[in-house]
Specification:
rod-shaped, single chain
Length: 188
């Protein structure tokens, strides 16, 4: 065999091994893309939330009931109520005298109605938080799959590199053996 045909075969072998390495990398990338499709579908298309009329009302009541505006307005109404019933000139204008029994009844009713409405809103917020944590989990899962894919690529590249080093070393030993053989023939 001539030197050029040997070099052509070596060149073809190198090209084939590089093509095989690239094919393995493509397969790893394709597999990771397939694994990530489901995660991406859930992240990009979360189920839409449709609120009932009662849920909308409970959110508005909870939002207003937990605001400074409500507290200041409520304190002002209570102060006006108390001042009017204490300072009113005639007893016929006082609709709720000093122990303020009517005011206590109204406060109890407001608390009794407002508490369950706020609880409904908090339950809905808890559901939103649960969905948000599921999204966080999916994002973390996607990142983990990408890292796993990178590890596979790195492992494959290192494996191929070690193989190439061993093959190169084997070729060098072969060349050394041929050189030694020629030297021994020339010496004789």
């Amino acid at each position: 065999m001539s030197q050029t045909s040997i070099k052509n075969k070596e060149f073809k072998n190198i090209l084939q091994t590089e093509n095989a390495r690239i094919q393995k990398l493509h397969k790893i990338v394709e597999d990771s893309i397939k694994e990530e499709e489901l995660v991406m579908q859930n992240l990009l298309n979360p189920p839409s939330e449709e609120l009932s009329r009662g849920q909308k009302i409970s959110d508005k009541v909870a939002r207003f009931g937990g605001s400074w505006r409500f507290i200041i307005l409520f304190l002002m109404v209570m102060m006006i109520w108390i001042i009017f019933n204490v300072v009113a000139l005639s007893s016929s204008l006082r609709f709720d005298p000093f122990p303020f029994i009517l005011l206590n009844l109204i406060l109890s009713c407001i608390a009794a109605i407002q508490a369950p409405i706020i609880m409904m809103s908090q339950n809905r917020q808890e559901e939103k938080d649960r969905k948000r944590s599921e999204n966080d989990y999916l994002i973390n899962l996607k990142a983990e799959m990408q890292i796993r894919s990178l590890h596979q690529k790195m492992d494959m590249l290192i494996e191929e590199q070690i193989k190439a080093l061993f093959e190169t070393q084997a070729q060098q030993f072969e060349l050394l053996y041929k050189i030694e053989k020629k030297l021994n023939q020339n010496i004789k």
